[in-house]
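Board notes, transcribed. Complex of a protein with calcium ion.
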Amino acid sequence: MSKRKVHRVSINDVVFATDKNNPPVLHISSGDTVIFECKDAFNQGIQSSTDLPTDLDFERVNPATGPVYIEGAEPGDTLEVHIEKIEMAAQGACCIVPGFGFLAPEFPDAWTKIIPIKNGYAEFGKGIRIPIDPFPGTLVVAPPGEGEGTLVPKDHGGNMDTKAIKEGTVLYLPVFVPGALFGVGDVHAVQGDGEICGTAVEVDAEVTIRLLVNKQKKITRPQIETPDFFMTTAYAETTDEAVKIALRDMIDWLEAEKGLTRQEAYALCSCAVDMRISQLVDITPGVRVVLPKVIFIESES
Ligand code: CA
Ligand code: CA
């Protein structure tokens, strides 16, 4: 087995928008591993309970560490993003940000809670501790046209806030520009589906990711695969529209990969597939359609 190269990208190499013109901070070969040092989504502006989100510079939030240029990645390819390891700092924070969040009009005041992370739990206080389940909320490549802020999730990834993308998961992203220009950030120690107040347990972290160029797989928006599940995902103007897009992608996949008729695929989704909310707060709501691999008898062989 050939030895894989391991690189590191510094916590200071961040972008707040993804753009085909962003200069890469690192060039790698397909199959290399990169340790990304990630600042939390507040760009390290919340360190104590007296730091309020209203004090943040909103032009500089949700940093993505990168971008990394993957040699050989061309428009039309798929970038395989293998999440290998996530190591977090000892303290995270959750904030209510005025004007942001699913019930924003009902929660107009800025609010901060510092959340220690220890022994596998996020210590929320008041006798409440949440088992950690870390994942990066923002995983992004450069879009084909104009640049995009890292706060918005779209077909090129971005602020996906999809808790399924954790250690042991492969995220597939479509490549739109040469080299893909991949970046990652916004790690959460734990988050509920929806990320409803707009932030979760936001934390600095090191994320180890293996990046591979896949020339065979053709996708138009992100897909997710774990040992047990295959997922399509979409971000749209409304949650309803996002569900429809992700569902059509799943039906397409079942036709192409499993040889089902379109009607069989539609009905199988009705019988065996779950709709999960990813997030409801990042301008374009996101959902994922989750297919359990256990239903395929051939997968046992
Ligand atoms: Ca986020
Ligand atoms: Ca976040």
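The first strand starts at residue 6 and ends at 9. The pocket of calcium ion (ligand 1) is lined by residues 41, 137-138, 159, 161, 186 (CB under 6 Å).
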